[in-house]
Amino acid sequence: MRINRRRFTQLSLAAAATPAAFAIGGKARAADPLKIGFVYVGPIGDHGWTYQHDQGRLAVEEEFGDQVETSFVENVSEGADAERVINQLATTGHGLIFTTSFGFMNPTLKVAKRHPDVRFEHATGYKRADNLATYAARFYEGRTVSGILAAHVTKTNTIGYIASFPIPEVVRGIGAFTVAARRINPDLQVKVVWVNSWYDPGKEADAAKALIDQGADVLLQHTDSPAPVQVAEERGVKCVGQASDMSRFGPTAHMTAVVDDWAPYYKERVKLALDGGWSATDTWGGLASGMVKLSPFNGNLPAEAISDAEAAIAAIESGERHAFDGPVRDQSGTVRVPEGEHLSDEGLLGMDWYVEGVQGKLPG
Amino acid sequence: MDILSMILMSVVAAATPLLFAGLGELVTEKAGVLNLGVEGMMLMGAVIGFAVTAVTGTAFLGIPAAALAGAAMAGLFALLTLNLLANQVATGLALTLFGVGLSSLIGQDFVGTPLDRLPQLDIPGLSTVPVIGPVLFGQDALVYLSLLAVGGVVWFLARTRAGLVLKAVGENPAAAHRLGHSVLGVRWLAVLFGGAMSGIGGAYLSLAYTPLWAENMTAGRGWIALALVVFATWRPGRVLLGAYLFGGVTIAQLHAQSAGIDIPSQFMSMLPYVATILVLVLISRDATRIRLNAPASIGKVFHPGG
């Protein structure tokens, strides 16, 4: 009985392995489309981070038609489950696999080592291999533009910033925003509330209300739900949306949103993979590459604010302006970036200090 | 409205979904059934409440629909655990997972749909009293309903024959069965009530707290409600206290942060949990009374034939 069951298991394993073997064999034929896999951390319906990646996938399908075949797995949790999913994509004939969350870094690296003939791309990470490229967006460049708008519209000189976790990416955004806003209005102060969550509509709304009660009349958010936009609209203050255009939730309040656009990058990488020119590069694209965009400015903004913001976008795109052009001081007044220089990429990636004008202490 | 009443309004809003779900679960557990599916039932209430309100344009249909959705989920749980004698803990966990998935599926078309907030029902004359006026008498219908529900549950459990039977079923189902009470019938009703209350709690999130539908928008509130019931030692008044305490400390820590008070934010985020547990443990530290309050047969399968 026991032997029979074991034999049965072996047989079924062999049967399960067969289609995969066929798929690998099939890949060699030239006429076959390139199979591209996407691994998402959230649902494609989140209208935020994952939604934007999926828009990129759809753009690839549209651009390359039957030269490619894409598939995706959504709601993959960061951890052991991710490795299983990535491995499955690698063993089912996918030639190019995008994993789109920071927490997929180690699983992607592991699977990439096991499958040297498959090309991998990991978003927002820093570990690379011969067949593992990395890519991320300079979201903070959009914060610079938000800062300019906020400085023009605030009357209380108090800005509320709803932040998720004290990691360099978020601290960098607070810094870029504050530097740009205080360049126009040196009296402006930024209050930060950490909600310790990427996504909790109720808590984000509560944080928004608390900040408004404390005098903030412009809200920024580095969390993913549109709840703060709704609160801003109800309380009659201004705000900036996150990851996708949230103007539906606050037609008057929503000044603009900082949006990721992965489509140009994905199309470029797929083209390289098809032509044979793909290599394991590290890309950190901003406004200039089109990876970061601003959704249309609200028509109720002062003309001067819009022209200033547009000028800043042009200057950042041309490389004339940097989000952290010196002199940049930290909270103690010490010059961290001297005049005539700007913060290096290394400094940006490890940023763990508040710039001057941010209130409170950065949680360790 | 002045700042103080604004703050108190936020406290009430943060507490209300916990209060609904906690009260429902309390009644379920008093009948001897442990349903860990609160989070899933809340999510179903949130999505159905939102969808029906968005489609029909009236929350008067949305809220009952949310209660029905929560009760339907609870009915599934009751069928599996009461009739088919499945393990309550495992079934409850499965119910949460199921609710997360099903609500995302149903809600797909409603992501990104804005909706008007549930209107405030000002009680004439009283809602204009300074500070406490708007807080006590300028709330939406669901807040009033949640407070009425506390009174209702207290009265039901302490003063009615049906409440006594429910507690008897939770304490000693075999004895209640021999006295001729339908253990399964009572438990079914208690589970359905718990589901309906969780559903309304979810609808409060998607209609009044943050009027939008977003996947997994309960963000763990179902689990907090479950914990509240235990730390409140199965007493409705303490569930009320715990929910308002939790809401109050949550709002207070956000204000402390934005006022620039120099305490690590991680500690601040932990504070509502610590404060609520601490207070509830301190007021109910009499071990004998806890044992008297805890339903003796909770989580145990009952089979009338056995």
From TrEMBL, chain A:
Domain ABC transporter substrate-binding protein PnrA-like: 35-298
Alphabetically ordered keywords of this record: Signal
GO cellular component terms attached to this protein's record: plasma membrane
Signal sequence, renumbered to the chain: 1-23
Protein name: BMP family ABC transporter substrate-binding protein
Gene3D superfamilies: 3.40.50.2300
One Pfam entry name: Bmp
Keyword Signal: yes
PROSITE patterns named in the record: TAT
InterPro entries (alphabetical): ABC-Purine-Binding, PnrA-like, TAT_signal
From TrEMBL, chain B:
Single GO term (MF): transmembrane transporter activity
Pfam name, any one: BPD_transp_2
Record bears the keyword Membrane: yes
Membrane-spanning intervals of the chain: 6-28, 40-61, 67-86, 93-111, 131-158, 188-207, 213-232, 239-257, 263-283
Keyword Cell membrane included in the entry's annotation: yes
Subcellular location: Cell membrane
CDD domains, per the entry: TM_PBP1_transp_TpRbsC_like
Keyword entries, A-Z: Cell membrane, Membrane, Transmembrane, Transmembrane helix
Cellular component per GO, a single term: plasma membrane
Topological relation to the membrane, as annotated: Multi-pass membrane protein
Predominant place of localization: membrane
Name of the protein in question: ABC transporter permease
Organism: Marivibrio halodurans
